[in-house]
Amino acid sequence: MAHLPAPRGTQAGTYSLALVCLGNICRSPMAHVVLLQKLARAKLSPQVAVASSGTGDWHIGEPMDRRAAATLAGHGYDPTRHRAQLFLDEWFTSQDAILVMDSSNLRDVLRLAPPAADRQRVLMFRAFDPLAGADLDLPDPWYGDQEAFEEVLEVVERTADELVRRLSASSP
Ligand code: 4NP
């Protein structure tokens, strides 16, 4: 499995992590909400900042997709605070890690990278999924059914558990 990039150290004792998909209304918001709740349970909220965004601008300012929200709510998470944001290239200098949901997101993000960007801080989210095989794509559930959203949540929960384990092991 991959390693989380070392913190830049601009703010001692903290780590900033951004989750990126295409629309920022399905996959990355689900990962964002789940990771925030798991970090809170691990008492790591003060040390780890989480953000999410999409490389597409169609849904900026909108809440999560209603199927994504219903799936989260059905499993005890609060989906109501999310509003879609556009990926900004300033994240290449502010984020310790940028985790993308599929290989087209990876291409899109790297295309936006300024020449001096540290591209090694951009990784596939499922590089931290303990059950991932060779294919690290988290398929887009946008054209799928409710079952597709349940499958996304399953991957997101176990990957978030692993991320929290990594982040607690390295926290001061
Ligand atoms: P997401 O899913 O990238 O997981 O948020 C999508 C949501 C909307 C669109 C594409 C993907 N769209 O084309 O509007």
Summing up helix and strand content along with how strands pair, one would put the structural category as: alpha/beta
Number of helices: 5
Distance between the termini: 23 Å
Q: Record the strand order, biggest sheet.
A: 2-1-3-4
Radius of gyration (CA) equals: 15 Å
Secondary-structure element series: EHEHHEHEH
- Estimate what percentage of residues fall within beta strands: 5-15%
Helix content: 25-40%
Stretches where pLDDT is under 50 for at least 5 consecutive residues are none
Bound molecules: 4-nitrophenyl phosphate
Q: How would you sum up the global shape?
A: globular
Counted beta strands: 4
> Quick check: average pLDDT?
96
**What composes the largest sheet?**
4 strands, parallel
Structure notes:
- The chain is an alpha/beta fold and 172 residues long.
- The protein contains five helices and four strands.
- The protein has helices spanning 27-41, 66-74, 91-94, 103-111, 146-169, and strands spanning 15-21, 48-54, 97-100, 122-124.
- Strands 2-1-3-4 form a four-stranded parallel β-sheet, with helices on both faces.
- Helix 1 (27-41) packs across helix 5 (146-169) and helix 2 packs across helix 5 (146-169).
- The longest helix is centred in the C-terminal third of the chain and has 24 residues, at 146-169.
- The protein is globular, with a radius of gyration of 15 Å.
- The mean pLDDT is 96.
- The structure holds 4-nitrophenyl phosphate.
- 4-nitrophenyl phosphate binds next to loops.
- 4-nitrophenyl phosphate binds at residues 21-27, 54, 58, 140, 142.
